[in-house]
Amino acid sequence: MSGALALLSFAAGMLLVRLNLLPTLVINSADRIGFAALCWMVFAVGVIVGSQKDVWHKALQEGWRLLLLPVGTLLLSALTAGLVGKLLGMPMTVGAAIGSACGWYSLSGVAVAKVWGAEIGLVAFAVNFLRELFAFCLIPLLVRFSRLAAIALCGATAADTTLPVIAKSTDPKGALVGLISGGLITALVPLTVALLSWLAK
Amino acid sequence: MGWLVFALAMGIVLGIAVRLSQTVMRFLDHSLTVSLVVMLTALGIEVAQNPKFEQALSSHGLLVATLLISVSVVSIAWGWLLERGWTLLCRVR
Q1: N or C, which end of chain B has less CB nearby within 10 Å?
Q2: A127, A126, A175, A171: which is closest to A151 by C-alpha?
Q3: Model confidence at A97: pLDDT above 80
Q4: From A19, which residue of chain B is nearest by alpha-carbon distance?
Q5: Measured between CB atoms, does B85 come within 8 Å of chain A?
Q6: For chain B, how many structural domains are there in total?
Q7: Do B15 and A10 touch (CB under 8 A)?
């Protein structure tokens, strides 16, 4: 699965709607169709990871990197977005909240909009949605020189939507590392966003 | 999220409990590509219907692009450093 195919599929979906080529039933069921495909992919990755007996041992050999990867990704994303946001004239906590979502656009859009207003919520949604799209396109390229770089870019999505691409571009061990990293970030993101909104008050 | 966790857990349990043939594993591997195309097309359909995305890009394009690029570059650099640093450390040992 190349990044180009990922981008083409996404663009095809947008184009089909714009050109009115899809029946209303398909357009209305797009979220359910997408979720069913995602469930199947996650199931297939589970089978592939589960059938490799030594993959758990190999993943645990990563040791402290298994924890450092998600924690560092979350903290550095928040810090960078906070500093860049400050340079562009927004409060540091707002930028940090946008960055700390690590690709979880559905949560960031709503959570940020609740505290800082709808306009900043839109920015949070767009930044995190594009991060996921970036990850889909760049994973096949990034794994050629560093698989941890690819997993770090995925952020929270490494535990769900981008997990199948990680599995396809690396191996079962890479998929398990991605799953653990994404799972930890997914657990930490709501806490971080809540902490930043509390600090902003 | 609950369904995803359930699907993943079922997959892992099945993978551990049953020894699947190479044909089944190849089918699962190919199905990943097909499902991914379906999922991303569905995502494109959803985004095309949602005015939020275009609204954000048209009114705050520079802010979105700057935040996106900086966060992505730092994340990639962190992953690369972690991998590269570990390899160097192992070589020194």
Answers
A1: C
A2: A175
A3: yes
A4: B48
A5: no
A6: 2
A7: no
